[in-house]
Amino acid sequence: MVPTEQRSARLALLIDADNVPAKTIGRVITEMEKYGQLVVRRAYGDFAGPQGVVWQETLVRHAIVPRHVGIPGRGKNGADIALAIDAMDLLHCGGLGGFCIVSSDSDFANLAIRIREQHLECYIFGGESSPERLKQACSRFIYLENLRFDPLHGPHHPKMKPLRPLGDAQVVVKSAMARLVDHPADWVPIDLLERELESRTTDFDTRTYGHVRLRDLLVALKRPFVVDGPRDSTARVRMRVAKSGRKIAAPNG
């Protein structure tokens, strides 16, 4: 869940075109609309060869400015360097609320840390195999594989294999619940639980476990949780506890 003031932020989209496929960019932009306005859109890579042909339609369709970087000498990555230099220039010019970097390259971890030191958000889109250091360096890490999930298709996608088994989510959610309540029988608003999960784990995403919404994920987990309410904005959840002397309020409706 993204706060309203955060959704109005001015953001810079910087794409490592040598590291990610062009076909993912449209979904990245759609996802980033949740977080703010992409007022800067740039892609870095070698656009003179076959890759340029592949990227041309994407660049035009999404108004992305290409920064052509020829293939450098051995041991150097010109696209990475150009992206980092532009990011630092934009950072010091001011006027931005955050950055979105599209890459799975761990070299951008230091850049993400530098951006956050300036009290700006740094979102990174990368593949499942991205290094842990990169995931932990940013404000939020979004797996490119999760962008396949379309909310219009319902709460889950039977044809899409989740990145992680459903059971893995149980441990993460129970830990977050424990931090929010004094007693397992206490109710927690689902939107509050979602904020807690995202603030503690940069890459937490219900789509990783095969569900678009947190409420649907909790319902799928069944045994550990009791969910009350039809929508995330008004729903609440508590741990399923053994009968005891404490009276538990019945769900509404």
Automatic annotation (TrEMBL):
Gene3D superfamilies: 5'-nuclease (3.40.50.1010), LOTUS domain-like (3.30.420.610)
Protein name: Uncharacterized LabA/DUF88 family protein
Annotated ranges, domain HTH OST-type: 169-241
Domain of life of the source: Bacteria
Species for this entry: Mesorhizobium sangaii
PROSITE patterns: HTH_OST
A Gene Ontology molecular function term of the record: RNA nuclease activity
Membrane-crossing segments per the record: none
